[in-house]
Write a structure and sequence with these properties.
It comes from Streptomyces prunicolor. This is DUF1697 domain-containing protein. By secondary structure, this protein is an alpha+beta fold. Helices cover about 30% and strands about 25% of the residues. It contains six helices and eight strands. Helix 3 crosses helix 6 (about 170-180).
């Protein structure tokens, strides 16, 4: 059985660091035996179909191939269509009423657990808010991610220790769910 996945690469093509052309990423994924490979934007999203592996093994395989080919390490999270659609469908904020830049999802490699965020004084950041989902954190930042004090607070290393975390704006969240839907 073939499943369609999205690979989310963390921190590539940002500020001139870890340059990874999307055409080369597509070629790399095809070389790993994946089909229907497409990329979205330049910031590290690829969609592909695969009949082997699971999310974790596919992420590890791609990370190893990138290191071998490009000489740098990249954190990779792979998620299937059902997961990506559920993330979009279960947004706790009124996504249809917000601009894409106001709503973000941080995808985690594993469930972060509410206790990680117990020290965050949520009231100190209002009107910004966050809510946890399935291996994800939804962030409402009315002035955008670049101006978000809550985003800075949530990115502290101790809150994300032992996890891969990568954030996408709402437009990308929706697009990846669509692209993996066939």
């Amino acid at each position: 059985m073939t499943t369609t996945y999205a690979a989310l690469l963390r921190g590539i093509n940002v500020g001139g660091n870890k340059k990874l052309p999307m055409a080369e990423l597509r070629t790399l994924l095809e070389g790993l035996g994946h089909d229907d490979v497409r990329t979205y934007l330049q910031s590290g999203q690829a969609v592909f179909a695969s009949g082997h592996g699971d999310e974790e093994s596919l992420a590890a395989e791609l990370a190893q191939a990138i290191e071998k080919r490009f000489g740098f390490t990249v954190d990779v999270i792979v998620r299937d269509h059902a997961y990506l659609k559920a993330i979009a469908d279960n947004c706790p904020f009124p996504a249809a009423e917000l601009e894409g830049k106001q709503l973000h999802v941080t995808y985690y490699s594993a469930e972060p657990g509410e206790d990680r965020f117990a020290e965050v004084d949520r009231s100190a950041y209002l009107p910004e808010e966050f809510r946890l989902g399935d291996r994800a954190l939804y962030l409402y930042a009315p002035d955008g991610l670049g101006r978000s004090k809550l985003a800075v607070g949530l990115s502290r290393p101790r809150l994300n220790k032992g996890l891969i975390a990568t954030t996408r704006n709402w437009n990308t969240v929706v697009k990846l769910a669509e692209m993996t839907g066939g």
